[in-house]
Design a protein that fits this description.
By secondary structure, this protein is α/β, with parallel strands linked by helices. It has a single domain, classed as Uracil-DNA Glycosylase, subunit E. It has helices at residues 3-9, 14-17, 37-45, 79-84, 91-103, 135-152, 162-169, 175-178, 196-201, 208-226; strands spanning 63-64, 70-74, 112-115, 156-160, 183-185, 188-193. It has a six-stranded mixed sheet, with helices on both faces. Strand 5 and strand 6 form a beta hairpin. Helix 1 (3-9) packs parallel to helix 10. The longest helix is centred in the last third of the chain and has 19 residues, at 208-226. The N and C termini lie far apart (40 Å). Bound molecules: uracil and iron/sulfur cluster. Residues 44, 47-50, 52-53, 59, 117-119, 137, 140-141 line the site of iron/sulfur cluster.
Length: 237
């Protein structure tokens, strides 16, 4: 049995294949009173709930189809995202866009792309080197993400790298251990994979990591087939 078959066969038995995963978060968003993504975005644009507000240029709320079947969740905005206010538009973003459009055959506008934190985290708050968000920042920002998920109601979430995977699956396990399987957040299938920046830093397009990402996208394609999610929405350009 190859890895894909194994992961797929076990997709409903996540407890048995992942004994270390604690109970998923059932935390409610603090934004139950907000009924549209646009309203939630307007609140986030003014947000000062954590220290990242001190150094950000723009809040990067997320973008895409508000009724998307597929949602991608990264860790936090980088330099280009901070400057433009849009998620995944730098080099890592270009790789993610290729994965979505060439791999899954869906146009980027038809999925939803967001991050765990909406403002750019940098080392020592100097606005230079990116770093993953810390626990305090994730805790402060996650109510936006939880409400985004509730409003979009995706059928599949692809978590990119450790912060989003650990947050949604409520685990301290790392992405290398977790990827290759399907998990559930509430009733939404979660497929964790490597962050495109991590792939770019470790060999890029022809690396083993990229191959692993493709294996994970095959899991997504199979789920899409089973959930009858239409794939071919690429606009003729
Ligand atoms: N890395 C992320 O995690 N998110 C972005 O939006 C861009 C780079
Ligand atoms: Fe608010 Fe999130 Fe930005 Fe922190 S990262 S200021 S919680 S929007």
């Amino acid at each position: 049995m190859d890895l894909f078959e194994y992961a797929y066969k076990n997709q409903k038995k996540e407890e048995s294949i992942n004994p270390n995963i604690e109970k998923p978060l059932w935390k409610n968003s603090q934004y139950d009173f907000v009924s549209t993504l646009e309203e939630l975005k307007q609140i986030a644009l003014e947000c000062r709930k954590c220290k990242l507000c001190l150094t950000r240029k723009n809040v990067v709320f997320g973008e895409g189809n508000p009724n998307a079947d597929l949602m991608f969740i990264g860790e936090g905005p980088g330099k280009t995202e901070d400057e433009t206010g849009r998620p995944f538009v730098g080099l890592a973003g270009q790789l993610l866009t290729r994965i979505i459009e060439n791999g899954l055959k869906i146009s980027r506008e038809n999925v939803y792309i967001a991050n765990v934190v909406k403002c750019r985290p940098t080392v020592e708050m100097k606005g230079e080197k990116d770093r993953p968000p810390d626990e305090e920042e994730v805790n402060a920002c996650s109510p936006y993400l939880i409400r985004q998920i509730e409003l979009i109601k995706p059928k599949i979430i692809i978590t990119l790298g450790n912060p989003s995977t650990r947050f949604l699956l409520n685990t301290k396990l790392g992405i290398t251990k977790l990827r290759g399987n399907v998990y559930y957040y509430k009733d939404i299938a979660v497929v964790p994979t490597y962050h495109p920046s991590f792939v770019l830093r470790n060999g890029g397009e022809n690396s083993l990591l990229k191959k692993d990402v493709w294996e994970d996208m095959k899991i997504v394609l199979k789920l899409m087939q089973d959930l009858r999610i239409k794939s071919y929405k690429i606009n003729d350009k």
